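Dear support,

I submitted the protein below through the web form. The confirmation email said the job was done, but the results page showed an empty box. After a refresh the structure appeared. I'm attaching both so you can tell me whether what I see now is the final result or a partial one.
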Amino acid sequence: MNKKLAAALSGGAVLVLALSGCSGEGDADKFSVDDWAKKYCDQAQPQIKKQFDAEQLIRSTASDGKPADIQAADSKAFQDLADVNKALATAFRGAGTPPVDTGEQLVKDAAAELDANSKSYLDLKKQIDALNAKDQQKFADGLQPVAAGLEKIEKNQSARNKLRKAETGNAMAKQPGCKPLKAPAPSGGSAA
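What the results page shows now:
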């Protein structure tokens, strides 16, 4: 079950971090949009690292591990992801309005979406904390609604997808602060 949680988080991370968008070739406001993107991405960079670490925590906890270990890892990860989403919403608001069509609405909607996801992650934390880690079957059964809730959060991307498809997404993709972090390659099981 923890593998499902890790897979869902991983998918969400790709959407949040792979900020590729349409190219805005020849646009006179390119530098202004780039300035906006730099301001956002500079604020977002520590949050991207924190998100990456939270996802790695879930992945590093074996799916067949002890329920108490899974519970502790997921609880911490959900709290961290709630904090990350809240901070990213604040970063969008702090970066101001990008100089693109409907820029103010794009930022407003993306920030509201992140705020909603933050609240949802806190709800998942409460759910995971309430599970009985001493009864493996009840714990496993209790993970089902947690996984469903996580999947729902990961699908809540429409406003950020609009932002990514606008010129803002292309500008953000160029910024070092918005570059996704990569997990280290898995080590081989045998020495050659």
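Response: this is the final, complete result; the empty box was a page-load delay. The CA atoms of residues 57 and 73 lie 6 Å apart.
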